[in-house]
Amino acid sequence: MSGDLLVTGIGHLVTNAAGRGDPAVIADAAVAVAGGAVAWVGPAAALPARHRGLPVLDAGGRAVIPGFVDAHTHAVFTGDRSGEFARRLRGETYEEILAAGGGIHATVAAVRAAPFDDLVAESAARLRRMLGQGTTTVEVKSGYGLDTATEAAMLRAAAAAGEAAGVDVLPTFLGAHVVDRGADREEYVRLVIDEMLPACAPSARFCDVFCDRGAFTVDEARRILEAGAAHGLRPRIHAEQLAHTGAALLAADLSAASADHLDHATPEDAAALAAAGTAAVLLPAVALSMRHPQPPARMLWDAGVTVALATDCNPGTGYVESMPFVVALACLEAGLTPEEALWAATRGGALSLGLSDRGWLVPGAVADLVVLDAPSYLHLPYRPGTGLVHTVVTRGEVAVGA
Ligand SMILES: [Zn+2]
Q1: What is the pLDDT of residues 213-259, one digit of tens each?
Q2: Which residue in 30, 86, 313, 398 is deepest, having the highest Cβ count within 10 Å?
């Protein structure tokens, strides 16, 4: 039957079965999969006879981890902004580039002009590369349309690209990414609430707002996110990236699924997020690409917040598709241990998306897993930039590799 598999020869299996930051490793392990879900996990010597007839994937002594859950991306877009990247390297700021009509506005123009099938094809190719780096579930935001028709098309493109790439996509409506060029800001907020949300909510799971200096205010974000919630969309918030504005406290107050970026978060923000059960989605590759200080990952973790790691893959402020690279950065630059970073990149991401059935390898979980070309998950931060993904399995089927 499809989705039936026995993964054997696992030298070192990360299950994440024991709680936040504990990889709960099993040595010399096996994983039995039936109908795309994990049926049994344990030491290979204890494998029950009923699972012995399954098709075998021999990991050859390598390490196996749960598939990465990338909980914050803008992976549906067309074109690139490498010229703008070069300008930033020469000293222009992102805000200067945005004010001159570059930044998000440049990608909005490209996405509006792109035929739908081209947008899907380009995005699917990107998701396939992410899958090749071990990412099996991806959150994808709209936000390069800024008009009702293009925002709705972006969400349809995200679903179609996920289908084509064989990656699970969770769509987020981000009509409030930036005020459209030339628009009156109050009229734009009303367009998002009165027209975009009703049109886009059926194709989305979450509603997000870029609440920051130069973007939307806390009051505007609250109005948009409350309207989104009335359409059944749970809030996520781009919070405290460029300046401290109070967006993290808004996220906690709204019991948002996540507050993302948090580069300027305070201990008070962390306590509120922990108390509200709002996850902190940290994006160290963006801080790297923007040459900003890293988010206070250690402080947030120690405050008891559910920490997730994500790429924020986007054409402007961080065109990064690789979760192994993000794990390495989180350890080397943002102060997490390898165990914490790996958990945040798998189980933490899943929890930030409200998904209890993935990010870990326990009976009943979706059988998404990665065979590393290494004997231990420690090699992810230890050997940054090295392709360490050997095989990727989605729902019990080999999707990449052997
Ligand atoms: Zn983002």
Answers
A1: 989 999 999 999 999 999 999 999 999 999 999 999 999 999 999 99
A2: 313
Distance 11 CA to ligand 1 centre (A): 36
Q: Across residues 307-327, what is the average pLDDT?
A: 97
Could you tell me whether strands 307-309 and 369-372 are parallel, antiparallel, or unpaired per DSSP bridges? unpaired
Question: Do the beta carbons of residue 251 and residue 269 sit within 8 Å?
Answer: no
Question: Are 226 and 250 in contact, with CB atoms under 8 Å apart?
Answer: no
Beta strands, E only, 82-176: 135-141, 168-176
Identify the structural domains of the chain with CATH numbers, from first to last: 5-66+360-400 (2.30.40.10), 69-352 (3.20.20.140)
Is 0.70 topped by the overall pTM?
yes
The alpha carbon of 239 and the centre of ligand 1 are apart by a number of angstroms equal to: 10
Question: Which tens digit of pLDDT belongs to each residue from 345-360?
Answer: 999 999 999 999 999 9
For 197, residues 6+ apart whose C-beta sits below 8 A from its C-beta are 173, 175, 207, 224, 227, 228, 231, 233
DSSP, res 314: B
Q: How far is the CA of 316 from the centre of ligand 1 (A)?
A: 10
**Per-residue model confidence (pLDDT) at position 99:** 83
* CA of residue 372 to ligand 1 center, whole Å: 28
- Nearest residue to 235 via CA among 347, 353, 156, 151: 353
Q: How far is the CA of 268 from the centre of ligand 1 (A)?
A: 23
Residue type, 129: R
**In whole angstroms, what is the distance from residue 39 CA to residue 153 CA?**
38
56-58 and 63-66 beta bridge pairing: unpaired
Separation of CA 336 and ligand 1 centre (Å): 21
Q: Which residues contact 328 (CB under 8 A, 6 or more apart)?
A: 380, 381, 384, 385
How much distance in Å is there from the Cα of 390 to the middle of ligand 1? 29
Task: Please give the distance, rounded to the nearest whole angstrom, from the Cα atom of residue 47 to the centre of ligand 1.
Answer: 43
**pLDDT tens per residue across span 67-95:** 999 999 999 999 999 999 999 999 998 88
Q: Per-residue pLDDT tens for 95-126?
A: 888 888 888 999 999 999 999 999 999 999 99
